[in-house]
Amino acid sequence: MSVQWQDIAYPGGQARIEYQWVGPPGAPGPVVVFLHEGLGSLALWKDFPARICQRLGCRGLVYSRPGYGQSQDLAPPQPWGIDFMHRQARDVLAALLKALQVQEPPVLLGHSDGASIALLYAAMHPEHCRAVIALAPHLFVEAKTLAAIAALQAQEVREPLLARLGKHHRDAPAVFRAWSRAWLMPDFIPWSITDTIASLRCPVLAVQGMDDEYGTLTHIQTLARRHAATELLTLAACGHAPHRDQSERLVAAVFNFLHHL
User: Fold this and answer.
1) Are the C-beta atoms of residues 250 and 167 closer than 8 Å to each other?
2) Does residue 205 contact residue 257 with C-beta atoms inside 8 Å?
3) Cα(97)–Cα(102) distance, rounded to whole angstroms?
4) 14 has which bridge partners?
5) Domains assigned to the chain
6) How far apart are CA 137 and CA 74, in angstroms?
7) I want to staple 14 with a disulfide (CB 3.0 to 4.6 A). Which of 75, 81, 113, 201 is the partner?
8) In the chain, count of helices (H) and strands (E)?
9) pLDDT tens, 199-255?
């Protein structure tokens, strides 16, 4: 199905969201909602959501957060604070699901920042989340993460990155600037969602690559300690993006995880 648009209003903002339904129309069962990474978008998922939904025989909802991809802020956005992921979960995702009439508790599949947003939404709305698949989630701030983001600021790295992102974002420099500044501001260092996830009720599949350049296995291990209904999957020869580096293994693992629910 082609990309569609939905206007939403939420506390502190208004946005026109680009979204796409994938998978068999009218398929039974919960919708799988895909939440992209910190520099991601609907388009940057490529064919992964469609492949997952085809394998599961379910519908999927893919969207770009406000300001990302082709989604637009319709009112001056609030400056990004240390709670920017909390706001995406509590306000933006909740408003979009309501506007699109996703009434049955969905499955949330998020990557990186999107995985953290998925976990936050599930913790905040335990009655409205069937399960979470968290790919390389951030539960707290690690020096390794900050060093990797800081390295992107060098002109010889930033300029080629922005050229690639420009193919998938209406305003790639603004996306990069907002995301990297939020992560690198000193006030963000104590950020953590380890206490919040204690209220999770749904099953979680937590996935991380052994060669993740943005974080260590401590995140998914902490998640498993804090939430007993967590299944861990570590992938060899895999960096920060399991859906790109180990796509076939991930599709199979997601199928097995959801098939048993």
Assistant:
1) no
2) yes
3) 5
4) 9
5) 4-259 (3.40.50.1820)
6) 29
7) 75
8) 10, 9
9) 999 999 999 999 999 999 999 999 999 999 999 999 999 999 999 999 999 999 999
